Amino acid sequence: MSDRGPQGIMDVPLAVLRLAEAFIFASPEPVTYKALEPVLPREFDPFLVIEALEKHCADRGVILVQTGAGWSFRTAPDLAPQLREALTETRRLPRVAMETLVVIALHQPVTRPDIEQIRGVSLSQATMDVLMETGLIQPWGRKDAAGRPTLWVTTPRFLMQFGLKSLRDLPGAERYRPTSGAKGRPAAAQEAPDAASAADAGVSAGPES
To answer: Which residues pair with 140 in a beta bridge?
Structure first.
C-alpha cells in the first residue's frame, strides 16, 4: 500500500465509512482487512478505515468489534440487560453439550476419550454431532496414540458466539494446559475459558441473528 498517501481517521469520508459498514454488516463471517480491501476505493487503507469506523460506531447501539482475525458488529455491552429482557432467548445447547464444549475449550486439542475421562461419564456421538452441526468444534488431526483417536478444537465461530477476539480474553485461561499436547494446534486454542464463566454465558444452538 505504498502508493497511498498519508491519511488520518478524519480523512475517511462518510461515504467510505458507509460502504465498509454495509459490507461488514452483510458478511456472514467476520471481515478481515484483506477481505475489505477490494471493496474500498484504492486510495483508502483498510486498516485506517476500520479504525475510523470503530470510532464512528463507538457510541451507537451496535458497535464494531474484533472477533478472531476479523471484524463484525455486535450490540453494545451496556445494552445487554435491557435486550435480555425484551428479546426471546434462542434455543440453548443441552447441558451435556455445553459441558463438553467447555472441556474442549479448556483442554484443546483433546480426544473423545480424554473428554470422557475429564467429565467422568461416557460421551454420546449425538452430543459431538450437535457441537459440529452448530459449527463450534472441528477435528484437528489425530493423536499419536493407540487407535489414533481424533483430536478436537473449538472453531472461529466459538469466538464469534462469545464475542471474543481470542480465547485469551476469557478469564482463568492461564490456569489450564492442553491435555493432548499435539503440535501445530491453532493459536486461538492456546488459552481457554474458565469453566463456570463459559457455562454461565451459554451458547445458542444456531446462527446468531
So the answer is: none
